[in-house]
User: What shape does this take?
Amino acid sequence: MHPMLKPALRRAWRGRNTVQFGVTPAHAVTLGPMDIATGSFLELLDGTRGLPLLREEARALDLSDRHVDILVSRLTEAGLLDDPSAGGVEADALRRRAETLERQRPDAASLSVVHPAPGGALRTLAARGAVRVQVRGAGRVGATIAAVLSASGVGRVDVLDGGRTEPWDVAPGGLPAASVGERRDTAARQLVRRSAIGGAPGTDRSGSATKGGEPPLSLIVVAPRDGLAVHAPDPGVAAPWLASGTPHLYAGVVEATGVVGPLVLPGGTGCAGCLALHRAELDPQWPRMLAQWQSGRRTAVQACDLGLATAVAGLAAGHALSFIDGDLPGSTGTRWETAMPLLDWRSEPLVPHLDCACGAAGHTEGELTSANAATQDTMAG
Assistant: This one.
C-alpha cells in the first residue's frame, strides 16, 4: 500500500489540535487530536511512499512506528486515504489508458469522495465500462443525457427515437446544429460516439460490443421529446420493463415544468401504474383529461426552455450514474419536479399502490435494499 490523502478534500486546521478534511458538510471529516509533528507527517502521504519508508521518515519527526500505523488506520477508516495502485485489474487497465484517465480525473476525484475505500474511484469508473444503458428520446433532454452518460465512461449508450432532427432539437451538449435534417437515431449515435472517452474496455470506439457480445441492459432512461409521457407515463409502455426486471428512470420537460423520476426498481418501488392509480383516486376526472391530452392535436414545438432542459438532463444523468455505481439516488421511487420561473425542486414520493400488478406494495425498505443489491450484482456480472 502507498497511502495517499485524497486530493479532492481540502485540508484546514480547526484549532490547535484538530484537522478538518473537506469543505462541505456532506463529506467533511474532522480528525484529532493532531500535533504539529503529525500534521507535518500528513504531507508525506502523497502516494509515493510505502509504509516502510513512511515509518522511516516519521522517525525523523520523532513519531513512532506504532503512531504511524494507528494514524494510517484511522485515516483509512475515515475514508480519507487512497492508494494509487489499488482497485484491481480493471482499475489497472484504466490506468494504462492514460489519455482516457486524464479526461476522467475530475470524475475520479469526485468518486474518491463518494466511495471511501482505497481504489474505489477507479474501480467504479472501470465498472461503468461494462454497463449498457438505453435512452429513449433524442430531444433537448434525452440527447444531452446520452452524451453525459457516454462521456462519463458508460460502455454502451443506445438512443432510440424516430423522425429527423429539427432545429429546436439542437442544444449545447446535445444534438449539434449540423445534425438538423438527419435521422435522429443516427445523429444521436454520432453524438454518443463523439462524447465517448476513447471507447470503454470491451467495446469498439463506436460503443458497440466486441468479442464478449452485447452487455446486458442495466437501465432505461425514458426521456421523450413530448414531456407528457414523463409527467403521465403510460403503464402499458413500461409493462415489458417490469416483466423483465429492468430498472427505468423518467426525465423530461412539459409546459415549462421539469420532471426527474421516479427511478423504478421493478417489484420494489412504485411504477407508472401506481402513479396512474393514485392520480385517478385523487382526481376522478384525471383519466378522462389524460385521454384527451394524449389523443388531441399536439403542438409542433414543446414548451421546453433550454436552461430547464439542461438542468433536467444533468440531474437525470447524475441520478442514473449514481444507480449504475451501486447507490440508490433520490429519485428512487420519487418524482422530482421544478417549474419556471422559480425553479425550486420539490420531491414527491411515489408510494406503491396495492391494486397495481407490479407487486411493489408488498416490499419493505429492507427488501428494497436487498433487491437493489441483487440488481447491482446482476449488472456487475
